[in-house]
Automatic annotation (TrEMBL):
Its EC number is 3.1.3.-. Divalent metal ions. Mg(2+) is the most effective. This is Acid sugar phosphatase. It comes from the Bacteria. Substrate binds at residue 195. Belongs to the HAD-like hydrolase superfamily. NagD family. It comes from Luoshenia tenuis. Keywords: Hydrolase, Magnesium, Metal-binding. Mg(2+) binds at residues 22, 24, 220. Catalyzes the dephosphorylation of 2-6 carbon acid sugars in vitro. It is an enzyme of class 3 (hydrolase). The active site is at residues 22, 24.
Amino acid sequence: MYTENTPEKLQALQNIRCFVLDMDGTFYLGEQLLPGSMDFIQKVNESGRRYLFMTNNSSKNAPCYVQKLHRMGLNEAGDGHIYTSGQATGQYLNAHFPGKRIFLLGNTFLAQELADFGVTIDDADPEVVVVGFDTTLDFDKMTRVCDFVRAGLPYIATHPDFNCPVENGFIPDCGAIQAFIEASTGRKPDAVVGKPNRPVVDGLLERTGLGKDQIAIVGDRLYTDVRTGVDHGLLGILVLSGETQREDIPASPTQPDLVFGGLSDIIPYL
């Protein structure tokens, strides 16, 4: 059960060298920066630490998020500040299926991210199936991916989210596509890469070159952001600036290591 931030818990922040930040609900909300976000980035930089934005959304690549951050005034942000589930999937494929040809259910942004990791896409004679958040999905693609999954090819998904929040509600995300495939083929993915799963943590450790005790995962969702940290030995920090409310914490199976109202509330402890 979560207890309020204690001096012992807060002391763990002193060892953190990289803050891995969720974006919507943590750093910004929709198209607006959350109060204190820029102050937090400034303090992280001044203290000699790093920050990295991490997202499960595999329908966009790093430059898409860099452009958005620039529109909001974070002009120092570059591709190196973004970590997507697509990038983590590229790392996973190189580690577990090096040189294998893949069938990709995904849009051009995901295809480019995988190509950046040297992954070969082959829609005709693949050896592995990769399913992402495909915003160009059509019935022909669904039929083909189900054929390959039904044939028994290794089957990897970029992330588990069933819905993606948009301005007027939600749209079906990668998890919903996986549910369609399971209904047709009887198979779930052999591995799901994105948070809160182990492959994205392994990729994060490789990407940063840091130890688990040097990384904090910060986000507004207990079941994805915070769970990624606490389930895998990283510091899991909840901010109450987005989806989760304080009254949600006691009943959650995932209990955060630390809780703050927003990013700026972390500043005094850095």
